[in-house]
Amino acid sequence: MDRRIFVFSLMLLVVATLFMLNLLAGAIDIPAKEVFSALFGGENVKQSWAYIVLESRLPQAITSVLSGSALAVSGLMLQTVFRNPLADPSIFGISSGAGVGVALAVLLYGGTISAWTYSVSGFVAVFIAALIGAMVVIVIIFLFSMIVHNDVMLLVIGIMVGYMSSSIISLLSFFSTEAGVKSYVVWGMGDFSGVSMQQMPIFAFVVVIGIIGSAFLIKPLNQLMLGEHYALNLGVNIKVVRNLMLLLTGVLTAIVTACCGPVSFVGLAVPHIVRLLLPTSDHGILMPATILMGAIVALFCNLLCVLPWGGGMMPLNAVTPVIGAPMVIYIIMRKRN
User: Fold this and answer.
1) Mean pLDDT lowest among 40-49, 113-122, 220-229
2) In which band, very low, low, confident or very high, does the pLDDT at 83 lie, cut at 50, 70 and 90?
3) Apex CA 95: angle with CA 112 and CA 320, to 5°?
4) Nearest to 127 by CA among 145, 113, 141, 143
5) Under a CB-based contact definition with an 8 Å cutoff, are residues 238 and 231 in contact?
6) Three-point CA angle 64, 290, 277, nearest 5°
7) Pseudo-torsion of CA 250, 253, 255, 260, nearest 10°?
8) What is the mean pLDDT of the chain?
9) Cβ neighbours of residue 192 under 8 Å, at least 6 residues apart?
């Protein structure tokens, strides 16, 4: 059997297995028979169990799949376009920009945003604030990309924007109330349970559209892998490709950060895991493999967070570095050698 077919088949099997384990595992022990009965509309299921499966575990598993895929694809595109193995959505300050938006909504306005006669609060307010914050950073990066044509310098600018965002968040935290700071800290720990089934259609629509848009960049990404001069000779408009990539990355990062918090290391580590399994530079293979591996890593991390040994829910960002940090160390050592 061809190695690629085997790897893709194995990935699909692992995604399906981890998805089911996420439905079966949790702080409350629910028999597997009752879980399947709740999923397929059984009438004799205990009401509290059905609610846990359909309104908590199922949306959490779906959110894990979509979020992991979105962050992994964003990391792959950033690493390719900027030819930097340590590039990920947070390096341009996109995650930090979303964090500033949430900080303004939670710490400054108490979770309620008002404009004219309209007012929103809770999840909607946090989502809108995070989206606006991320898009402001993207606009800043766009403006600098028109002036600065050096990818390394653009990366440095993105890192500086991230530092400025962190400074703003620190100031807001200093002047905020204890309750506001606590709410923001909890959000910053990361959590795939922030999207309910009622909110899922909007979340899924934005993520799927972003990933489909990323798929249209497969050909120019392959050409950029051969070098900018080669890509220019083939008629690739590097500035347009870079700006489209930044826009897609920004939207995907914003929606995930708004709903799940600033999830660390997934966008950085997953593309490298895929390259280890499938040593190729063809994004026609790398991108779908990255989507699947992103789902696998996110589902696995979520499973570790909800396993019943603690009787509760561990922060997501307490688990993701366990996978991401060794990968960063490996990349550094590999480059050194």
Assistant:
1) 113-122
2) confident
3) 110
4) 113
5) yes
6) 120
7) -160
8) 82
9) 60, 63, 64, 67, 260, 298, 302, 305, 316
Contact 63, 218 (CB under 8 A): no
pLDDT band per the 50, 70, 90 thresholds, residue 76 = very high
Distances (CA, A) of 46 to 35, 37, 40, 177, 312: 10, 10, 14, 41, 21
Report the first-to-last Cα separation within the chain, whole angstroms.
33
How far out from the chain centre does Cα 33 lie?
A: 32
* Residue whose token pair is 């059984």: 42
Residue 137: count of CB within 10 angstroms of its CB = 27
Tokens describing residue 53: 């499966």
- In terms of phi and psi (left: phi > 0; alpha: psi -120 to 50; beta: otherwise), the region of 311 is left
Cβ atoms of 260 and 236 within 8 Å: the answer is no
